[in-house]
Amino acid sequence: MLQAIKAFALLGGDWILYILIGLSLWCLAVIWDRFFLFRSKARDSELLGNQVPELFAKGQIQPILKLVENATSPEGIILKEGISNLSLEREGLESLLESVKIREKLALEKNLLVLGTLGNNAPFIGLFGTVLGIIKAFNDLAIAGTSGPSIVMRGVSEALVATAMGLLIAIPAVASYNYFQGQIKRSMLNAERLACLLLAFRQKKKR
């Protein structure tokens, strides 16, 4: 068992770099996907956030229905579901709106766990590759004897690439994760505001 562990350690950290390259591509794919998703919904969210409160204040429901007919943002989808079920009792409508909000939030958060996980763990994966590379470098030095100090220096230099690669993945992953979480929070708060306005409008109509 001990010999197997030593043999594994002496493999070096080059194979870790291939794992990190794969993880970096995965990270970029998630960032790309989420960025264009949020970008596609941003205009719709802004439009609804600006126009719907005024239309509710005027008691005009038909223009709102027209606005949300082809909506893709969480705000639009939640309003569409709510307006379609205005005949429900208040408690039932509130539960429906909450259910739709949870569904839309889960859709927005899709794959964001990947960014959070890579942001937290990519540096450790890189450090693991560096440690393995240093172990191999010192083993090579022991084999070469005093005539080969350049071997260990070259090995250490190559090993540090893994740590740099891990940080290169982690920094944009964390930044993107925080950005997208901020976008989700903003979208959900806006959806909550419009849902409250819808409930207030329903209450006003019932009087």
Give a written overview of the molecule.
- The protein has 207 residues and is mostly helical.
- The protein has one domain.
- The protein is built from seven helices and no strands.
- 28% of the residues are buried.
- The mean pLDDT is 83.
Give a concise summary:
This protein is mostly helical. It is built from seven helices and no strands.
Number of strands: 0
Mean pLDDT over the full residue set = 83
Q: Regions with pLDDT < 50 over 5+ consecutive residues?
A: none
Name the beta content range.
under 5%
What is the overall number of helices? 7
* Radius of gyration, taken over Cα atoms and rounded to an integer in Å: 27 Å
Structural class estimated from helices and strands: mainly alpha
- Please report the distance between the alpha carbons of the first and last residues: 79 Å
Strand count, sense and barrel status of the largest sheet are: none
Approximate helicity band: over 70%
Element order: H for helix, E for strand: HHHHHHH
Shape: rod-shaped
